[in-house]
Amino acid sequence: MLELSPAIQGVEPYPFEELDRRKREAIEAGRRLVDLGVGDPRDETPAFIRDALTASLTPVSSYPRAAGLPELREAIAGWVDRRFGVGLDPDANVLPLLGSKELVFSLAQAVLDRGGRDLVVVTAPGYTIPERGARYAGGDVMRLPLTQERGFLPDLEGVDPATWARTAVLWLNYPNNPTGALAPLPFLASAAALARRHGFLLASDEAYSELWFGADPPASVLQTGDLSHVVAVHTLSKRSSMTGYRSGFAAGDPRLIGALKALRPSVGVTPQEFVQRASIAAWNDEVHVAEGRARYAAKRSLFLRVLAQHGVEVAGSEGAFYLWVRVPGGRPSLAWALELLDRGGIVVAPGSFFGPEGEGFVRMAMVPTLEECERAAATLSDLLAREVPA
User: If you average pLDDT over every residue of the chain, what do you get?
Assistant: First the structure.
């Protein structure tokens, strides 16, 4: 029998695989579903981005440069300057990625020291990939709870200095998945100050930074005044409906960016050049981003209105395209998710999929078309009318 490493044998099934299985069974049974479960945008990738990709296809292909195209790094730096008011050196501070998940999983391998800094701190409930990457790299994991009472911000001041001394990386994610909460700039600045004081890396997954519904756009760790000990991770998946393109970037501490850049030729994860050229077009345009944000706002208002009519609480949900919805009646989140699937053909993600801290909630991703969302909202209203007093 082939021997496998303990790290790969210890990889747990991705929770959404089970959800996908249940969806397949329903579809095979002839059910018509509206999928609010997985955060995969269903909007078309704008035509000008697709045109930029096809125009970049050449008869002969070549390996992409490990550091990415200079033009792409410059476009990213230009976008960061316009969006956050932060000047970056395209060569020293920016690295294109094969989608953000690539680095969210593998970053622990770059910063963990099993003889000293062997701890990765994550927030929970949350995106499971940072924790999975930490365990695969042989590190320990500490989960900081996100509670409604604290506005879904972790209690960083409650962590003792000895724990910070063991910490290799602290992961934050705002706008937050799954709660949709936002983090104010002073909170991010205090987290960055902690990182510099104690010598660990603050990694900020900012995949949803362009999806907000209030007056002020979300902040970035890049705005905290010092790029040392911080890295921000961005992607075009949500901003530009480009999930299948696998294109993002990391920006921040020049020592980390330089080390990752040196590693790239060995691992071969730079996006294809034609994807990079499409990405340049995407980073240089804001019109399509505002249009997408307006579409999500319309769908968000639709669900918020229905849930409010039936007295169902929505917590957080200020950014990203998620609604963090309290399960009515106090039953388990998976039980209600299966009820919605079986009785209404509505797919949602149980909060327990994001860790036990998410129990009691479900996450609704407003990614289907407006027409599909209208159908789902009407069905949801009918279901809630039978169990929750208006």
Answer: 94
What DSSP string describes 43-74? SPPPHHHHHHHHHT--SS--PPPTT--HHHHH
Integer distance in angstroms from the first to the last C-alpha of the chain?
60
**Cα–Cα nearest to 247, from 273, 267, 223:** 273
Q: For residues 182 and 151, what is the distance between their CA atoms, to the nearest angstrom?
A: 8
12 pLDDT above the threshold of 70: yes
Q: Which residue blocks in the chain are alpha helix, DSSP H?
A: 6-9, 15-28, 47-55, 70-84, 100-111, 129-136, 161-166, 185-198, 236-239, 254-267, 273-283, 287-309, 333-344, 370-385
Q: Is residue 114's pLDDT more than 90?
A: no
Dump pLDDT digits (tens) for 300-329. 999 999 999 999 999 999 999 999 999 999
- Residue type present at position 307: L
Tokens found for residue 220: 């970035």
DSSP notation for 294-314: HHHHHHHHHHHHHHHHTT--E
Give the count of beta carbons closer than 10 Å to the beta carbon of residue 166: 18
- Please give the Cα distance from 37 to 191 (Å, whole number): 31
pTM score over 0.90: yes
Strands 119-124 and 167-173: what pairing? parallel
Backbone torsions φ then ψ of 212, nearest 5 degrees: -145, 160
Percent of the chain with pLDDT over 90: 84
Tokens 């949900």 map to which residue? 317
Residue 321's nearest CA partner among 233, 242, 239 is: 239
* Partners of 218 in the β-ladder: none
Distant-in-sequence, close-in-space partners of 257: CB < 8 Å, separation ≥ 6: 92, 93, 94, 95, 231, 250, 251
- Please give the angle made by the CA atoms of 315, 290 and 55, to the nearest 5 degrees: 130
Contact 145, 124 (CB under 8 A): yes
Name every residue whose Cβ is closer than 8 Å to that of residue 101 and which is 6 or more positions away in sequence.
Answer: 129
Residues 6+ apart with CB under 8 A from 289: 210, 239, 240
Q: How far apart are CA 209 and CA 58, in angstroms?
A: 33
* CA–CA gap between residue 299 and residue 59 (Å, rounded): 42
Contact between 76 and 95 (Cβ < 8 Å): no
